Amino acid sequence: MAERILMTGNEAMAEGAIRAGCRHYYGYPITPQNEVPEYMSRRMSEVGGTFIQSESELAAINMVLGAAAAGMRAMTSSSSPGISLKLEAISYMAGQQLPGVIANIQRGGPGLGEICASQADYFQAVKGGGHGDYQLIVLAPSGVQEMADMGTLAFDLADRYRNPVMILSDAQIGQMMEPIVWHEYTEPSDLPEKDWALTGAKGRPKRIIRSFFLKHGFLEKHNIMLQEKYARIREREVRYEETAVADAEVVIVAYGSAARIAKDVVSRRMKGSKVGLLRPITLWPFPGKRIRELAEAGKDFIVAEMSAGQMVEDVRLAVEGRSRVGFYGRIGGGFVTVDEMTEKAREMLAARGARK
Amino acid sequence: MKQAAREYRRPKTLESVPTHYCPGCGHGIAHRLVAEVIDELGIAERTVGMAPVGCAVLAYDYFKIDMCEAPHGRTPAVATGIKRARPECIVFSYQGDGDLAAIGTAEIIHAANRGENISVFFVNNAVYGMTGGQMAPTTPNGAKTTTSPYGRNPKTEGHPIKVAELLANFESVVYSARTSLSSPKNVRETKRAIRKSFQAQIDNRGFSIVEVLSPCPTYWHMTPEAAMKEIDEVMSKVFPLGVYKDWEK
Description:
By secondary structure, chain A is an alpha/beta fold. Chain A is about 40% helix and about 20% strand.
């Protein structure tokens, strides 16, 4: 049996990246993600990689852009205010079709906010955030094991689609410790060759990494190509986990930290009440099709998240009025509780009863 | 004494395409010098260039080497990422005064301070050309631009930033020079400086920068000839030519 090791989420994600062959990490200190650059500064030196504590989050993500353009697996991490700074280059990377991994260990906002867990950067992560029509692949770990696993998966997805990938975590999952198991990592054999990487034009035509298309019509064509790629990702990469959904009347939709609390609510099944959980593992692409199937099967929903109600919009779009979609949230660093979520589920079940 | 016949040819590293630069612009000369040096050093197959945001944004269409685009001012950070990933490549960033001395001030200073083993070619024409002639951080005092219509006032806009002198202060910088394109002699001097910068990188010495004073007849509202004179009579007074740091001296 594989050895179980106790690690923090932030360190597990960093180690996962290293096991995936990431040898280029660039970052800037910000709480609650400092364990990532600290771990990387130590480990990169051991594995012969590059670590730079950059002058800013802007510089860090642009170093990732450069290393990715040179064909390397590269990563940066930050927390909410720092991610806002990185959005400029993230938009460039999406336009330039550069793979790269960005981790957001979310904290409360807006502004400098505070340093407790939050999920208020959902819109920023899944709806673009930066300028232009682009999509990130967004992974939402809900525990330390998933931080480790997604630390590697993110690179495979980034390379497969030539697209930046965001790991959207939070202060709670980043800082807490849980036992994890390391699986042997082997790079998928069907990843496309990086025949676009800048290596010096030796014995081949020159290569250009660009997102700028001045000639009329070229940018539109480029965007159509990007949208076709996003459609392929939507088709193939939706990931979610269901708990007790089959006989549930009300399904809680929650990810990350909120999903851990929701699991508790569901496992209690207070007085036989029929509450299940759908946990999106990819926030983009979003498991909207599955949510719609559940709506067609007559289930109602509660979206539980640590924001003023962001993912709830995607659930409402998915059900298109077929079901009730309630919302339970805590904001500004407040943490969702089992009791409050249970109460919300009871209300929804009672409303269903009254309707019958 | 018999002089060998010399043919004037396009450097191999320059594409045979018309550029978008205005008549009398200095970018054409600066591009050519960079390309000539790349050819002479025989490094075209391992050189990666960085295009800035600004007039030289399309530089990748003109150089026949691998090139990367960077967000405005982040050019030295992207160059850092490429160079650290591929130390065997020769990496240069080609930047204008807005890109390097305004929006990208943090990136250039910290790349210099880390002693990144890259070459920076800084084309200073004292104006934002691509966006239509606005004031640059290097616009001389009193100069009128579309955003300093009464002339740059140092009391409110500050004085022109002297990049070659500034970066020479950093211990990790091995070479910092300012040249100009105003005469055949100065063009040759510029080529020597570019060559020295590339050589520093080939020898793994660290960060080097060549600031090139370059004419912008369009937004200086002058003929190309007058713009060249302006470099000698005005620009070179604000920004004295010279070598500010040299590892050999």
